[in-house]
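Before relying on records like the one below, remember that each one covers exactly one chain. Contacts with other chains, cofactors or solvent are not represented anywhere in the record.
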Amino acid sequence: MKACVFTLGCKLNESESASLMRGLEEMGYEVTDAPGAADLYLLNTCAVTAEAERKSRQAVARMRKFNPAAPVIVFGCAAEHDAEAFAAREGVTFVAGAMRKDKILSMLQERGVCIEREEAFCELPMPKMARTRAFLRVQDGCNRFCSYCLIPYLRGRSRSRAAASVLAEARACTAKEIVLTGVDLSSYRDGDVGLDGLVLALKDVPARIRLGSLEVSAVTDALLSAMRAAGTAPHFHLSLQSGSTKVLRAMNRHYTREEYLSACRKIYAAFPGAAITTDIIVGFPSETEEDFAESLSIVEEAGFSKVHAFPFSPRKGTNAARLEDIPPAVKSMRMDRMLEAAAAAEKRYIENNLGKTFTALFEEDGGYTENYIRVYNKTASEGGMYEVRLLKRCEGGAECELLSRVE
């Protein structure tokens, strides 16, 4: 019997799917994550935007084209948000939510809908081992309730995995890089152990440790000191969303523009040359041209190495969905300008690093340096870790030369 586990959305979803794949293998299934012919389909869905939810619905029809007779099990955030709509789709036999994914493997033969709330961290099987990068799930849920975001309503309140459990999985992991991930990684806490303590606990794990998305409040002297002591990758995905303090307040983000820039300066002081990547929402309700100009200017002022820009997408059930949206044409023009600024920022960062040496872990179609520059070399082996020198910028990153292999 062959099972296909197809994943949409975030790195946390990828980690959860890897756990389910491992569990399916232990049950005797041949397992793949590549869409194709199978006897069973499990779809891990996303609802972070309306477009993500639409793609989740499309995935059901896509899987059924490969085998119309195979049962389709749908779970995750989009399933939590609109369970009955997924249950009504032809071929879907079972719908589970976003919080009790630990029950899915025991309910493969069930029919209907199972949406349950969960107050404790949901432990899953040890994930299917990756050769290169593994995503280690350490936290779930969120208490922040940003005005545009549905995720706290779908994944529930913040809860953290026991540090001992995190450490056990990290030590058993065969990947050369481990990315700590969660809905709100910054809120990690197991008793007296915060994110800084967790990073220190992973100090002797024989893999490069990288942190997932962080909030401004997480950028403390304690965390930066722990990262330096543990040799954590100098890459910070520091959520921004807007460069305007006024818009940040409307988004219910708990910092100002200056506080964000102060966190960036603190990072650069601890890790000169660090990569700071971010997300920016363009066209949030009430965003004026002056507000947008502040988002444009902070791209250069913060020295971002990469910017993920998205047009605002109202999500029914959030406070922002009640606000008057900006005209699509205005939003589209601002997106074009933001994408230009993002491309220029990435170009500056890469060009500032040409001629420098880094350690790069190569995957199937390129590698990543510790500061998250995408690098290319045709002779590098998949799964290989190399000391490299950046030679010239190219589309999507930089070409590099291999100096030596790092074991």
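The CA atoms of residues 362 and 382 lie 5 Å apart.
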